[in-house]
């Protein structure tokens, strides 16, 4: 096991004349909870998309678990242990909660097409185990009892939790959360902060999140990286970021600094 689970060096993403990510160095220590923050348009989601293989950087290197992921297809990166959620929820609305979670287990299932069609004893046993695992994950994220509910019928907050359950079904080493508390009320956000710690402590999953809610960021993160116009302007502990004058001017402002306390 390497000290850093993820190591990105001099990552640049350029769309024509627009530099969306400007030579960013970034690493995630194994077992940590790290946040990426910054104003809208700072390049946060673009950087996420580089890490997960949706974008190929114009320049730079990204290593995950000791291996380069540049040019690797997103589904192969996911299968290697990097799972993510999206700012806009992307569930299969016409599938049940349990089925949504089971879909993500596919890379770890061994039954082939023929055994699935014939429904061999081994395939039926594997499917039964997958359903039990889905049930356990739904309980873990706090939405027990919704197994047979269609995803589109779940309340917004439960859909957010279902998306996390589906990501955990990939058995990730690294979980990337893009605006996980968007649309949540303050109580739900506070509960989610505790949940992120449980994911790390009980499941051994390293976590990277993009988040605008400064109470969540300061309450959950061990290290925070700040982007502005695609460049890294600060990095450090929550205490460091809270008092960094450049971050206050670029992003937090006086009201944001108060909210982060």
Automatic annotation (TrEMBL):
Q: Does the keyword Transport apply?
A: yes
Q: Name one GO molecular function term.
A: L-phenylalanine transmembrane transporter activity
The entry's keywords = ATP-binding, Nucleotide-binding, Transport
Cellular component terms (Gene Ontology): plasma membrane
Q: Which InterPro entries match?
A: AAA+_ATPase, ABC_AA/LPS_Transport, ABC_transporter-like_ATP-bd, BCA_ABC_TP_C, P-loop_NTPase
Look up keyword Lipid metabolism and say if it applies: no
An annotated GO BP: L-valine import across plasma membrane
- List, for all copies, the residue spans of the domain called ABC transporter: 6-254
Identify the CDD domains for this entry.
ABC_Mj1267_LivG_branched
Q: What is this protein called?
A: Unannotated protein
